[in-house]
Amino acid sequence: MTDTTIRRIHARRVWDSRGRPTVEAEVTTARGAVGRAIAPAGASTGSGEAVDRRDGGKAFGGLDVQHALGAIRTEIAPALAGMDAADQAAVDRRLIALDGTGNKSRLGGNATIAVSMAVAHAAAAAHDMPLWRWLAGSAADGPIVMPVPEIQIFGGGAHADARVDLQDFMVVCPAATTFAQALDWTAEVYRTAGAIMAEGGRRQGVADEGGWWPAFADNEEAMATLTQAIERAGFRAGEEVAIALDVAATQFGRDGAYRLRLDERSYDRGEWAARVAEWVGRYPIVSVEDPMAEDDPEGMAAVTAAIADRALVVGDDFLVTNAGRIQAAAAAKACTAALIKPNQAGTLTETKAALDAARAAGMRTIVSARSGETEDVTVAHLAVGWQADQLKVGSFARSERMAKWNEALRIEEALGERARFRAARVFPGGRA
Ligand code: PGA
Ligand code: ZN
Fold this sequence. Notes:
Layout: E1 6-15, E2 21-29, E3 34-38, H1 66-80, H2 88-99, H3 109-126, H4 131-136, E4 144-145, E5 148-155, E6 168-172, H5 179-199, H6 219-232, E7 242-246, E8 253-254, E9 257-260, E10 265-268, H7 269-282, E11 285-289, H8 297-307, E12 312-315, H9 323-331, E13 337-340, H10 342-345, H11 348-360, E14 364-368, H12 378-385, E15 390-395, H13 399-415, E16 419-420
Parallel strand pairs: 4-16, 5-15, 7-11, 11-12, 12-13, 13-14, 14-15
Antiparallel strand pairs: 1-2, 2-3, 5-6, 6-7, 8-9, 9-10
Helix pairs in contact: 1-2, 1-3, 2-3, 5-6, 7-8, 9-11, 12-13
The protein binds 2-phosphoglycolic acid and zinc ion.
2-phosphoglycolic acid (PGA) binds next to loops.
């Protein structure tokens, strides 16, 4: 038997893609296997997320993580020492009990998720397996469906100084036949979109997740430009390559009122839902995330009723990777897909429970990174190991993004004949 007893947990401060401090945890087993993971951080966070514990004070704009690191050293490490890294559920139960709050605010969700993921890495390493394989269990020997990459071309919202109100203008490739081919196609669209921006004198670098900086007259111009980029790159828009939006409406919607700063227009709930539906009709859009604010389930249900036959309606801030919220949203027909972000939940077990709840409710699942990221590639392994429908890690530039795409490429290659990729089935409406 492989000895997966946890011997040591080390906490280290490292730095994320925005140059901010973050938490790295390193777990060593009795036999010397090591697992390491780094907590990511969001910018457009939902209020129901596990708390990202920051020190406040003067250093690094108040964003230092010494308290979260201290919690790992003085509380978490002693509590988990001697436990079995292969029993993720028991480890995570211990973390949840030790924290004792409903939202990981005492220890810090950044401390708990880094440790929880590092424990999984250590167990996989002790078994001499890649993480995806460890997570897949007995399913790993059969065919494995690779996730459909959802890739940002233009950034916006909280990731680009609100220069455009909507947050992510992304593409998916419903007609691609492998994960690698979807990346090939996206690379052409990304390059072409950059060329179009340069021609118009509008190319001004990239936003937080590597998408082109949004220099547009209004929000709709971003959709029109993206459609143009897809077509000029040589693809049939909506069939081969389609648009996915993350509206991230919590950033500009409050109490059922939606105000687009760039467009200088305000909408009430019904008008805004109609506007989103109009865009889905006018552009080759197959997925819309957080079209309404996190506190507007009525609005989410209205959008779902209007567009679910043509596009996925994805809950991110609205669901915050919480199984209970996902079940409630499914009962209310408030969305048709769930974004799954480990650090919103705070442990891997709770993250998996959210994914299972979504799947049981007939929703699509999208494993996602955050806008503040690092070289950590855990999400690529979660998406494959848990057989999620999609993987969302930002744009097609900057190494904290490319590290995840490249890791998924390596996994697909290692799978060889056993790899499956069924992109078209993920999206409604029979496009492609
Ligand atoms: P965040 O953005 O990591 O800043 O929350 C990602 C998203 O909204 O999907
Ligand atoms: Zn989102």
